[in-house]
UniProtKB/TrEMBL annotation:
Segments annotated as TPR repeats: 271-304
Pfam families: SET (PF00856), TPR_2 (PF07719)
Keyword set includes Repeat: yes
Key words of the record: Repeat, TPR repeat
Compositionally biased intervals (Pro residues): 1-11
Domain of life of the source: Eukaryota
Entry-linked InterPro entries: Gramillin-biosynth_MTr, SET_dom, SET_dom_sf, TPR-like_helical_dom_sf, TPR_2, TPR_rpt
CDD domains documented for this protein: SET_SMYD
Domain SET residue range list: 349-520
Protein name, per record: SET domain-containing protein
Segments for region (Disordered): 1-28
Length: 726
């Protein structure tokens, strides 16, 4: 039988999260199984329907249900007992066993690649292979190929049209299936197809043809077969060169580097090998290693413009890594919905990862940092260009699995992240190569995605504008930033430019001090926000504010604040007045009275230098109300209160319109615990407007300068405040 090598599936863009129904979990033998002819007939109908459907339709993603988690196999196909399909039991994972199967149908490409398979005894069944990258031939196994399935999970896929059960071998973990080379002696004699292509030259030509047709997975497959059957060692370097170049196109940088170095012959033409290896290392963001290989390429071919260009790019990334010197304005201008993956190095020298006294690992300063200093800037380890909220999580999950599969060198940094509590212990073999691929547990990967990902706007600057589209955020993993622990009143603030995370100090940080961030915007009430942390990450916050509110403030005081805040929110209906809205005086008096009571409910000995979060909403509202009436003195009074309620130190008498003070200094207090948000910037702008209204130009200018500094903290780089009006 000739092997059919079809065109690869269209590049898959993640779709909606897969829906998992509650399964029948009883382990048993299948009741009634369809014949080979019936299986192939039904499958052919589905394949034909797909062939008639529009091309490039997105493939959905089967996102794991953690409640149904089971561990990946860590065994080689050569270490398991090969069993026939007839011995499979429904809802069993068949630990210690494996299958050697021939694919006897073209694949149907949905969330998984569904095929009909046959064992050496003529038994047939259906298999669905999930979570394979489009760069792999396993993403749609061609008819005639041989696969090995380790510790197979056999399950019920639903009901057939006649009401009978539809059985299926379900391969969730991508490392649980392996493509077996045609020359491998593990293949049973009845499944052997004989020589498909006789020589290494034939396989190489087939690979070249596939490459010209841009069928890159098939090209890699053919080049690998050529290497397996090549008897002439002198023929292999050219095949390694071909496979390295193809892997580079597919983003399989580990393989590209390995093959490029294997292609060296000790002659001057080795510049090609070093050039490819350098580009592969660049793709992995290993710029020091990239520079090493590109330097060797230049030594052998010093006038080649392509090598020079790549070398200069590499030097630019190394400069960014060393200095943190970025042109953020130019970076912002380069952003577009199609260009979110920036060509930048990560600056992390001001920080280091160490054991945290709080829990687990933490990030610590390696030098003294002042407010506004760049703490670190990190390019995303993984971030798909998918800003649709319903698809962002599935897109990141799929990208993570596929990138780890394609580039095993990423496993060490990504798999060390915390995935949350699992129903089984993690295996130390995760990420190690077995049968040529890293052991990947998709449930672990989904757990660590869920616990460590960040929600990301196209840029934080755009997100501060009134015209920003609410909810349009991608999700990404930043491995270095994932080591940060949470504090409700942190000492840093993060912002985003495409796939670049920027962290700036919001107050003085001493060398050796742990660096904190907010995981999510904090809720006003301590029990509510800690419920969010408990549900999302399994911890109770022990920051200065939470300890003060939950451990030091009395329960009676907490309940009083909660009740008064509820009264304020009921009156205001959770709305902030617009600029031209005129609020009735009676409403303003009612809110003002409640706010005074709420302020008195904050114990001075506890909240002396801490934020008073329950006061922020009402204070902001009063600023808007008095601004609408052009009552500048009261606008100043309540804008100052907003700043104080965020935890900024205000000089005595600052609420008076006649007080001369410098709002810029509020960012540099070493004793107060302040919380920086966009609302602080807005309050400073309202302060400036009110001072201008009273003719106090110097105070207005100082307030604007303070707002500009705050806006730089929020957006990550210096920006014009007029963006807040667009």
């Amino acid at each position: 039988m000739a092997v059919v090598l079809p065109s690869p599936p269209a590049t898959a863009s993640p779709g909606l999260d897969g829906v998992v129904t509650k399964p029948d979990t009883t382990m048993r033998a299948p009741r009634v199984k369809p014949t080979k002819e019936d299986l192939l007939k039904t499958h052919a109908v589905h394949v034909q329907k797909q062939a008639n459907s529009p091309e490039n339709a997105p493939r959905p993603v089967k996102q794991p249900n953690l409640a149904l988690a089971y561990p990946a196999s860590t065994k080689s196909i050569r270490e398991v007992d090969i069993i026939p399909l007839s011995q499979l039991e429904v809802n069993s994972h068949h630990r210690g066993s494996g299958l050697i199967l021939k694919v006897i149908s073209p694949p149907f490409l949905g969330a998984g690649a569904v095929s009909i398979v046959e064992d050496e005894f003529g038994n047939v069944d259906k298999i669905s292979i999930y979570n394979q990258n489009d760069s792999s031939i396993l993403s749609g196994v061609p008819e005639g190929c041989i696969i090995g399935v380790k510790e197979p999970y056999y399950t019920i896929n639903g009901k057939n049209a006649d009401g009978s059960e539809d059985y299926m071998i379900c391969v969730d973990h991508p490392s649980d299936v392996t493509l077996i080379r045609f020359t491998d002696p593990i293949i049973p004699e009845p499944l052997r197809l004989g020589p498909l292509l006789k020589t290494a030259e034939d396989w190489k030509k087939a690979g070249d043809t596939a490459f010209l047709e841009k069928d890159f997975p098939t090209a890699v497959f053919c080049y690998t077969e050529a290497l397996d059957c090549a008897e002439d060692e002198g023929f292999k370097p050219s095949i390694y060169t071909k496979r390295a170049g193809t892997s580079l196109i597919l983003g399989r940088y580990d393989s590209a580097k390995e093959d490029a170095l294997a292609s060296r012959t000790g002659t001057s033409t080795d510049w090609k090998a070093y050039y490819t290896a350098g580009r592969a290392c660049y793709g992995l963001c290993n710029y020091s290693e990239s520079k090493e290989y590109l330097s060797k390429a230049l030594e052998l071919n010093p006038t080649n413009p392509a090598i020079k260009k790549e070398y200069e790019r590499c030097l630019a990334r190394l400069h960014e890594e060393e200095t943190g010197d970025y042109d953020f304005e130019a970076i912002y201008k380069s952003l577009s919905p199609k260009n979110v993956h920036l060509d930048l190095g990560s600056f992390t020298r001001n920080t280091e990862v160490k054991a945290s006294p709080l829990h687990g690992r933490g990030l610590f300063a390696t030098k003294d940092l002042a407010p506004g200093d760049l703490v670190f800037a990190e390019k995303a380890t993984l971030m798909p260009n998918q800003y649709e909220p319903m698809r962002a999580s599935a897109a990141l999950y799929a990208l993570t699995v596929r990138q780890l599969l394609d580039n095993p060198s990423l496993c060490k940094s990504v798999l060390q992240l915390y995935p949350g509590e699992m129903t089984y212990e993690r295996n130390p073999l995760e990420g190690t190569l077995v049968d040529g691929v890293p052991v990947l547990d998709v449930f672990i990967i989904e757990g660590l995605r869920n616990k460590n990902c960040f929600s990301v706007p196209l840029s934080t600057l755009e997100d501060t504008r009134p015209t920003a589209q609410e909810g349009r955020q991608a999700k990404g993993l930043w491995v270095h930033a994932s080591n940060l622990n949470h504090a409700c009143v942190p000492n840093t603030l993060r912002s985003f430019l495409g796939d670049m995370l920027i962290s700036r100090a919001t107050r003085h940080i001493k060398a050796g001090e742990e660096i904190f961030q907010q995981y999510v915007p904090v809720k006003s009430l301590p029990d509510v926000r800690n419920g969010v942390y408990k549900d999302g990450w399994g911890f109770e916050c022990s920051c200065t504010l939470c300890v003060a509110e939950l451990k030091q403030s009395s329960e009676a005081s907490r309940e009083k604040r909660k009740d008064l805040l509820a009264q304020v929110e009921k009156i205001l209906n959770k709305k902030t007045p617009r600029a031209k809205t005129i609020i009735p005086d009676a409403t303003i008096r009612s809110v003002d009275k409640l706010m005074k009571q709420l302020e008195e409910a904050h114990e001075p000995e506890i909240y002396g230098r801490l934020p008073r979060l329950t006061l922020i909403y009402g204070s902001n509202w009063l600023v808007g109300a008095y601004r609408g009436k052009k009552n500048y003195s009261k606008t100043i009074r309540h804008a100052v209160k907003v700043l104080r309620n965020f935890g900024f130190e205000m000089p005595q008498g600052a609420e008076s319109q006649d007080k001369v003070w410098d709002p810029r200094q509020m960012f540099f207090s070493e004793e107060w615990h302040s919380l920086m948000t966009i609302h602080v910037v807005v309050a400073l702008r309202r302060l400036a407007e009110a001072y201008n209204g009273l003719g106090k130009k110097e105070m207005a200018e100082r307030s604007v300068e303070a707002a500009e500094f705050g806006y730089m903290l929020v957006t990550g780089f210096k920006n014009d405040l007029s963006n807040l009006d667009r």
